[in-house]
Write a structure and sequence with these properties.
alpha/beta; about 40% helix; about 325 residues
Length: about 325
């Protein structure tokens, strides 16, 4: 098939491109490198079935595709809060333009939404029929509400224009190619640990997240796209819940780091608990995450250390 991936130079977008190319599809990646990196597409660029277009999704784009995976959006809290108006525009206009293309060409469309649509949830674990607890005027709202209006657009295009949509809500995902400076917790903790710096724990460290390795998540996206008769939304994530203290301790142990914990105030609107109910994904998609947190962290740590030019983690801790 001919497949378009927006946000192709991002962490997840680049891995998705690699997996789709591995299945023999012709893939076009679209990105403007606002938060993505050309280096993430090094493997894809070696494949003759891959084409890259540098473009801002806020502007209309064209082409003829069988499938459109729409992943284009800043996802790092420090990055999207740095340019909140731009983040809201990317989500609304980018999704509108991608849906217009799906409508005009008859492509099946998948929206990569987020667990942030649930806000600081009052329901635990989060099921897809929960409408969320989002502060629409808070500093995270540009992203949270941006993804919520993106979901609205997708379902309205389906109802009004019969566009064949899929909506997935992605919970915390990690792995190689994450920017170590993007402010997300796994990449931040690993970066701090391998350099022997203090690991920053916000609040009392008892807030929880559920971490899914990138390969499991990409598999879920592709299954969702190719499952007939299901629009979503469907949660994709690992239901194994850990506290921030537990995560930091695992990363310190795996790196052998000399890093110590440094407690700081909890950011505004930071969710205190986050765990997906993946019953729908299990029943409808036959999908379950398979990579343990320990194994996924070990692979990510090894990748990040190599990318930083460090020979061994023991050496890192000693020289950090």
């Amino acid at each position: 098939m001919k497949i378009l991936v927006t946000g192709a130079a991002g962490f997840l977008g680049s891995h998705l491109c690699d997996s789709l190319l591995g299945q023999g599809h012709r893939v076009t990646g679209l990105d403007n490198f606002r938060t993505g990196y050309a280096e993430n597409l090094e493997l894809a660029n070696t494949n003759p079935n891959f084409e890259f277009i540098e473009h801002d999704v806020q502007l209309p784009f064209s082409g003829s595709y069988d499938r459109i995976f729409h992943l284009a959006s800043p996802a790092s809290p420090p990055m999207y809060q740095l340019e909140p108006i731009e983040t809201a525009k990317i989500n609304f206009l980018g999704t509108l333009n991608a849906l217009d293309l799906a409508h005009s060409t008859g492509a099946r469309f998948l929206l990569a939404s987020t667990s942030e649509t649930y806000g600081d949830p009052a329901v635990h674990p989060q099921t897809e029929d929960y409408w969320g607890n989002v502060n629409q005027i808070g500093p995270r709202a540009c992203y949270d509400e941006g993804k919520r209006i993106s979901e609205t657009l997708a379902f309205d295009f389906h109802r009004q224009h019969n566009v064949d949509i899929r909506v997935v809500r992605i919970f915390n995902t990690y792995g190689p190619r994450m920017n170590p400076n993007d402010g997300r917790v796994v990449s931040s903790f690993i970066d701090q640990a391998i350099y022997g710096r203090n690991i920053t724990i916000f609040g009392n460290g008892q807030q929880t997240r559920s971490f899914c390795f990138y390969s499991d998540l990409v598999n879920g996206l592709m299954r969702m796209m190719e499952t007939d008769g299901i629009l979503g939304p469907i949660n994709l994530g690992n239901p194994s819940e850990v506290t921030m203290l537990e995560l930091a301790q695992q990363i310190i142990a795996l790196t052998g780091s000399s890093a110590e914990l440094e407690m700081q105030p909890l950011p505004i609107d930071d969710p205190k608990r986050r765990r997906p109910d993946i019953t729908k994904a299990q029943k409808i998609l036959g999908w379950n995450p398979t990579v343990s947190l320990r194994d996924g962290l070990a692979e990510t740590i090894a990748y990040n250390a190599k990318a930083a030019g460090l020979n061994t983690l023991c050496e890192t801790s000693a020289t950090g």
